[in-house]
Amino acid sequence: MDRINDSAMLVGRFAAEPELSHTGRDGEYYRFPLDVERLSGTVDRVNVLIKGELCKSLGLTEGENVRVRGEMRSFNNRSGVGAKLVIYVLARELERYPGEPENEIFLSGTIVKQPIYRRTPMGREICDLMLAVQRRYNRSDYLPVIVWGARAREAADWKVGDRVELSGRLQMRNYIKNENGIETEKTAYEISASEISLME
To answer: Which end of the chain is more exposed for a tag (fewer CB within 10 A), N or C?
Structure first.
């Protein structure tokens, strides 16, 4: 696997008009959902963040197929509304693209929580990892990763501080959370690793 710190490439449907997210030092940023279909037919609705001028220059309309190249990002949502850890793709390039759906993530990072090995209700082996992926200005993004099968058993023995590299896909997962007796549907985002290994 080529060593790439953080790379995301997605092809999917432009699912809704962009909305203003925030204004930074280098201008306005907009967010929009991108629907990326899996081979199974399941659709992952991925959050994309993009600079205003790049988004406006294309004049995209809902339903068009596009390709996004960028990087994974995360931030802690302290508003109390929605997910606590928000995962999205920061788009560096955006273009119309009539090709088949794609969802490719390449990361290298450091394990920051002890891996959690478990079995699903269907008996599949799974291991949960939390990676810190370093970027410029001494900042890091914290990204949840899931590993399956024999690789899950291997990952269960890894330690906090180990560095790993992986390829996989960004996916969404709906679940029910019980809060004070009230059941609420939530959505979590995670990277499902197809290849993963310790770095030397």
So the answer is: C
pLDDT tens string 55-87: 777 888 889 999 999 999 998 876 655 557 899
Q: What is the reported pTM?
A: 0.88
Q: Which amino acid is at 55?
A: C
With H, G, I as helix, E, B as strand and everything else as coil, classify residue 54: helix
Q: Exposed, middle or buried by CB within 10 Å (0-12, 13-18, 19+), for 9? A: middle
Q: What is the pLDDT of residues 159-186, one digit of tens each?
A: 999 999 999 999 998 888 777 888 888 8
In the chain, the amino acid numbered 100 is: E
37's CB contacts (< 8 A; 6+ apart) are 12, 43, 44, 101
Specify whether the CB–CB gap between 72 and 141 falls below 8 A. yes
